[in-house]
Amino acid sequence: MGLLKGQIDIAPCTVEVVHVFEELSAHVRLDDGSVIHPGDSVTVSGAPVIAGYGESVTERRTATIRRAGPLRRAWTRLTGDLEFMELCEFSFSEDLKLEDAA
Fold first, then answer.
1. Which top-level group of life is the source organism from (predicted)?
2. Tell me: the pLDDT tens digits for 43-73?
3. Helix (H, G, I), strand (E, B) or coil at 46
């Protein structure tokens, strides 16, 4: 195993796509209990799963898990917190009521 590349695992998975008024989501569950670690990547085989409006679709597929090597795993852990902070929105302004603003 090199510093950048790790092993490749094949795992059965379940793909769930929901497209209803209350929810729009897509989830992949690895059925054999495989755990994804920082830096790993998962590719699901097959054609895209399409759910029309009002539908919920569940399909069994095969997933390819590319394990990260030690260097990539360490890099992902070091930079992951910084990328997470980009998703956060901070506000230091006071709460104003509509009457106060006028």
1. Bacteria
2. 999 998 899 999 999 999 999 999 988 888 8
3. coil
Q: Tell me the residue type at 97.
A: K
Q: How is 3-24 classified by DSSP, letter by letter?
A: SSEEEEEEEEEEEEEEEETTEE
Alpha-carbon span 74 to 19, nearest angstrom: 37
* CB distance 36 to 76 below 8 Å: no
E runs forming strands in the chain: 5-20, 23-30, 41-44, 55-68
- Look over the chain and give the mean of its residue pLDDT values, rounded to a whole number: 82
Q: What is the pTM of this model?
A: 0.66
Q: Please, are residues 58 and 31 in contact by the beta-carbon 8 Å criterion?
A: no
- The answer to whether the CB of 73 falls within 8 A of the CB of 38 is yes
